[in-house]
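Lab channel / #folding
Pinned by the channel admin:
"Please post every new chain as: sequence first, then the structure tokens as a reply. Keep commentary short and put observations after the output so the thread stays searchable."

First post following the new format, from NK:
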Amino acid sequence: MKRLLILFVILTMGCCAAFAQERGPDPSGANTGGAADIAVANAGQPTPAELLAAIGHNKVAINLMWTLICGFLVMFMQAGFAMVETGLTQAKNAAHTVAMNLMVYPLGMLGFYMVGFGLMFGGIGPLLTLGGYAGLNHEVSITLFGKSFGLFGGTGFFLTGSAYDASVFGLFLFQMVFMDTTATIPTGSMAERWKFSAFMVYGLLVGAIIYPIYGNWVWGGGWLATLGSNFGLGHGHVDFAGSSVVHLTGGVLALIGAIMIGPRLGKFKKDGSANPIAAHSIPMAMIGTFILAFGWFGFNAGSTLAGGDLRIAVVAVNTMLASATGAVAAALWMWRVRSNKPDPSMMCNGMLAGLVAITAPCAFVSAPVACLIGLIAGVLVIEAAFFVERVLKVDDPVGAIAVHGVNGAWGCLALGLFADGTYGDGWNGVPGPVAGLFYGNSSQFIAQCIGIGANIVFIGILGFIVFKLIDVVIGLRVDTETESSGLDIPEMGVPGYVGVTDSLASPELTATHSTARRT
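Reply from TO:
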């Protein structure tokens, strides 16, 4: 019996060896790949060290590939922003609006490449999911109350020197497209009257200076990230994928820019009431919204920076659910509370508001809570849009302030309220998972409030300075005649649509222009 068993083992090993040398079809893929595929020097037999090295390399390769693919998805969101903003504005400005959405990508990228990435991530330390590279290790900080407060990074500029590393390049691509999302938000609130030369200067500066510094405070190891380790405030300000870093920053810039540039001609009557200026292509705006919703999976799930982190499934589903409840809530609220119709443009903004709001807490909350966050966002975006227009008298053609600013803040607050303590162990160097106020940790909610307040104050002041300097040197706004006739020909040299003139403006706007010419 023993001899038969030995003979069976020998025959089995021989068959396995023959299969490894000449394998047949493998429809399931389960039998393809193994130790024999590891390139080794010792006659094809991998050593334990070589096996471990291969496993580690493949783990990092999976994470890097996941990060890059998600970055590509986020990059395509720029097409969505371009369609939403162009569709919700007038046809006579279509070429100008879409050109801003195109050019903010290369301008912001170059600013981020030269200066911004170093300011934001130059002191981040080891890139744990991407191989542990620790070359970005110089954080400029000050000491207050005996604690170190990180302000901005001091290495990584131009992606040279210690930044010339594959993992750093992967991080750069992913973070660059996040910056681009922030950069493009004000192009909606300032559309139809922003001088293109002034926009070009802004596009470079937002990637180089405005976005990266607050980003460093939250994602680069700066002082907001260390509120937990320094002062016991939860895990510090936590923002999984950018409700504050990306969207609140863009929303505050959109508000400051819209205030400083002023409303479009004819937007407000002499008594202060608002004239509606109709969108020229609702279908374009709705298609753009779907593109954004698709790209948002890269935005949120990609922020794990790890394809092996199975929490990505929770993140992705929470993202879907919040977008759905945001859209439905906005449609019903407009239909039953604000008007007698559901309003397609508000359906779009409701879906986007839900996406913005879930961006910070998507990894830390359950599915029912994700639905609730989106539901509140869908109502909040409508009420905020009416408040901005009717109370603040600020003209925001696409609702960027309400979508990104207000709901970016709501997303950060939602994390501080609803994080359920099932994920995030060790986040920002603090042991234990992230939990919010309703799960026993009121200090996390305080940290979220501090992060929101810091963003509004810092980005508001910096945005004012940048826009003011541009206005003094170049001028923010086109002249009245250019705005009246449409920005496409005077600013861009080509029409967005052949044959489009200022006759496509609303009757109220045309009347206002005629009066302005007579006086």
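NK: Residues 54-481 form a domain with the Ammonium transporter fold fold (CATH 1.10.3430.10).
TO: also worth noting, The two ends are 112 Å apart (CA to CA).
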